[in-house]
Amino acid sequence: MTDTPVEEMSFETALKALEDIVTRLESADVPLEESITLYERGAKLKAHCEARLNAAQEKVEAIRLAQSGEPAGTEPFNAG
Amino acid sequence: MDLIDDPQPVSNTPEFTVAEISGAVKRVIEGEFGRVRVRGEVGRVVVARTGHMYFDLKDERAVLAAVSWKGQVARMRVRPEEGMEVIATGRMTTFGPQSKYQLQVESVEPAGAGALMAMLEKRRAALAGEGLFDAGRKRPLPYLPRVIGVVTSPSGAVIRDILHRLRDRFPVQVIVWPVAVQGERCAPEVARAITGFNALAPGGKVPRPDVLIVARGGGSIEDLWGFNEEIVVRAAAASEIPLISAVGHETDTTLIDHAADRRAPTPSAAAEVAVPVRADLLAHVSGQQARLLRASGQMIARRDQRLRDLSRALPRPDSLLAGAWQGFDRWAERLPGSLRTLVSTKARALAETAGGLRASALLRQASKDQERLRSRMLRLAAAAQRQLERARATLPESTRLDRALSATTAHKTAVLGMSTGRLRPEIATARITDARARLDERTRQLNAALDRRLERARHAITQAERLRQSLGYTATLARGYAVVRDASGQPLTTRQAASDATGLEIEFRDGRLKLGGARTSPPRPPKPAPDQGSLF
């Protein structure tokens, strides 16, 4: 079990960690104390994953180029 | 030889200067071939430092010099390469100073699809030779990108398809870098967009995409040609941001597809490759949560069950003590009897020993000895008398004998006197006193031994009592538990029984507390003193 703080995990890593915890709790004979720790971490991972999924929001922009040709910013984009 | 040989044939053919004829040829050639298309194989290609390109067009029998000026070269969609079968479009010009004519080429196109494909294959092989298409260069796509950069035409179905598909699956931030997707501007703009996205600093004004999609709808091989250009292929290969190419239809393959980290058959497919389906992920996460809950619940239930099983298997405290109690009772009962047996055994032994030590027996023995002595002395005196008479009868000189006999008799008498003197009753009395003292000593030892045995037995009983107390429920009371009884003093073990009872009595460590109900019986003493019984 890694000790990476859940908040710093990417969605993919967090999901993988959650799956690992579930598998361990389901199959292995985990000591009771450890199982509580695992469960709490699992709940945290689940919340993290869900937050990452719920944060999904559509936003479409187009690159605005400056005179020099460098990207100067973005502007709302409307697909014609 | 003729006399009037005309040294110079006179002709009315006008004379040209070199410049005149050169100019005339120029006029004819340029007038006649103002705009031509010439098909041929490209020969040697030289690009001068000025940017002008000189090359040959040739076939089996002839060679035609060709030149393209710098500006024309830049606008060419296809640059002539040696060995390429092309159709060059331009006009014929002459170059007076060297008496040369040449084709001034404005544009070059591959001669037919076969030639184009051959060129594409050659270019592909060259770039592959550089390792730009190696599988080892491909980077994995992020599982869940936060920002997606799209390089495509801002108008048209392609960007709409991509945005639609993203919205359906997983809405994310999309940044479009508008480019021309065909024509001369296509390749440089696409390459510029790819490098431009990569140049964005993380956390800058414009968010840096986690993945790029380079997309274009279907079209002819010529329409898609910009995506075969080396500049585009190199930009795609150099992109640090993972890149998905989706150019043309599924059957179209452009060189950017080889350089991309992932190739999608269509723009919509590129959107599918780029993001997972959010609803699926949400369902998966909640599924994991459900499993997490179930697994932990089951685990606790499993341990609970195990605890119950073990509790059932645990022997009851009273049965644990039963054997010990039984053994204790058995030995405690035998203890007084064994002492009694011991004492009587010893008493009997003492009586036997002391019986032989009676004074009368000693006196009887002494008189028996005296009687024996007296009879011996009588027999001795008679024997001496007989001997004396025999001597008197046989020997005349009996005086000596007489004297000797008297001496012997006197000696014997003296010895007898000494023996008789030693036979005193005081000796017997002293031995009896001695025996009595020994008897007293033994009796004292016996009593002491008996006391020690009693002390040991008492100690064992105390130990057993302490054990009984510590294993009894009163010790549990001392740890803070309480026993609930009904009014009649029967212990209650269920809530139902307690609610049915008329009155409750709670036993604590330091006494009992009555709650409600009539006081029907006096409280029992908390701990009846164990009956240790009598030893004797």
Automatic annotation (TrEMBL), chain A:
One function term, GO molecular function aspect: exodeoxyribonuclease VII activity
Gene behind this protein: xseB
Main location: cytoplasm
Function per UniProt: Bidirectionally degrades single-stranded DNA into large acid-insoluble oligonucleotides, which are then degraded further into small acid-soluble oligonucleotides.
Reaction catalyzed: Exonucleolytic cleavage in either 5'- to 3'- or 3'- to 5'-direction to yield nucleoside 5'-phosphates
Pfam family of the protein (one): Exonuc_VII_S
Family from the record: Belongs to the XseB family.
Protein name: Exodeoxyribonuclease 7 small subunit
Compartment(s) where it occurs, according to its Swiss-Prot or TrEMBL record: Cytoplasm
GO biological process, one term: DNA catabolic process
EC number: 3.1.11.6
Biological source species: Rhabdonatronobacter sediminivivens
Subunit structure of this chain's protein: Heterooligomer composed of large and small subunits.
UniProt KW keywords: Cytoplasm, Exonuclease, Hydrolase, Nuclease
Keyword Nuclease appears in the UniProt entry: yes
GO cellular component, one term: cytosol
InterPro entries (alphabetical): Exonuc_VII_S, Exonuc_VII_ssu_sf
Highest rank taxon of the organism: Bacteria
HAMAP family listed in its UniProt record: Exonuc_7_S
From TrEMBL, chain B:
Any matching Pfam family: tRNA_anti_2
One of the GO biological process terms: DNA catabolic process
Coiled-coil segments: 432-467
Reactions performed catalytically: Exonucleolytic cleavage in either 5'- to 3'- or 3'- to 5'-direction to yield nucleoside 5'-phosphates
Membrane spanning residue stretches: none
Enzyme class name: hydrolase
Domain OB-fold nucleic acid binding as annotated: residue spans: 16-109
Cross-referenced HAMAP family: Exonuc_7_L
Protein role: Bidirectionally degrades single-stranded DNA into large acid-insoluble oligonucleotides, which are then degraded further into small acid-soluble oligonucleotides.
Protein name as catalogued: Exodeoxyribonuclease 7 large subunit
Native species: Rhabdonatronobacter sediminivivens
